[in-house]
Design brief:
Largest sheet: 8 strands, mixed
Radius of gyration: 18 Å
Strand order of the largest sheet: 4-3-2-1-5-8-7-6
Number of helices: 9
Number of strands: 8
Oligomer: single chain
Distance between the termini: 22 Å
Shape: globular
Order of helices and strands: HHEEEEHEHHEHEEHHH
Strand content: 5-15%
Structural class: alpha+beta
């Protein structure tokens, strides 16, 4: 089996690993149809810092993202390392959310099925299947679309809405997912799109949904006592598997 693995020096350097994983997440979003070309934003806090962030410079297509392309920016929108600039709404949304919530990773997209759900007056994600149950109680809702983000105050407002949740539904706009690692956050984003698609498809049948109880959803979220794999290990294995897919389908992200 072909296995993508970071070299010992890459794995030992958190910054290099963050750059590679961030580039991989952008390319995976293309394969999974979660992106809009050069728009939307993925950011990660620079290891060892709390006030500077890695991002793909505006203007590059997500399919061509490379680790070496990533720039470092701050909340003022200044490029501190690398070539290129941060897009305004990325600065205004992501930097305050990182700062206020403490999230290390912030992923924001207008992915199709999540956006379709967020176009509805009642856009709540229902625990109507096993995977959706994992999101139950972890989704915040911003029901007041105010236009494109062009001030840091808008990011601060969104940070207040998301609070301690790790998913934000943005009515008439899209979704935002946070995480401690890129592997964790991207896995959440990927699964979120799949459960949104399942709910929209089920709703389109016109028949009532069978929604799981809070008790069952909590049971689904509780780690099994005898599980051989921790949540963190599952996230790592998932992302490593996805990088192997990239090595076959869209290689070059680690460069």
């Amino acid at each position: 089996m072909s296995v993508h693995a970071l070299t010992p020096s890459q794995a030992a350097d958190p910054l290099t690993q963050a750059r590679i994983h961030l580039a991989a997440a952008h390319r995976l979003a293309v394969l999974h149809e979660l992106e809009e070309g050069i728009d939307n934003h993925f950011t990660v806090t620079v290891p060892g810092h709390d006030d500077r962030y890695l991002i793909l410079p505006f203007g590059l297509h997500w399919s061509e993202a490379r680790a070496s392309d990533m720039i470092v920016f701050d909340e003022a929108g200044r490029t501190l390392e690398g070539e290129g600039v941060v897009e305004l709404s990325a600065q205004c949304i992501h930097a305050p959310i990182h700062r206020i919530t403490g999230a290390r990773v912030v992923l924001h997209t207008h992915q199709t099925w999540a956006l379709a759900l967020n176009m509805l007056q009642d856009n709540r994600l229902l625990p109507a299947n096993q995977t959706a149950a994992f999101f139950h109680g972890h989704v915040a809702y911003d029901d007041n679309y105010t236009g494109t983000a062009d001030t840091l105050e808008e990011g601060e407002r969104l940070a207040g809405v998301i609070g301690d949740k790790h998913v934000l539904f943005m009515k008439n706009h899209g979704v935002l997912v946070t995480g401690n690692t890129i592997a964790q956050a991207y896995r959440r984003l990927y699964k979120l799109e799949r459960v949104c698609r399942a709910q929209v498809l089920a709703m389109s049948s016109g028949r009532p949904l069978e929604v799981l109880s809070d008790e069952i959803a909590a049971r689904v979220q509780a780690p099994p006592v005898h599980d051989r794999h921790s949540r963190a290990e599952r996230e790592r294995l998932y992302f490593e598997a996805m990088m192997r897919v990239l090595d076959r389908e869209l290689p070059g992200y680690a460069g």
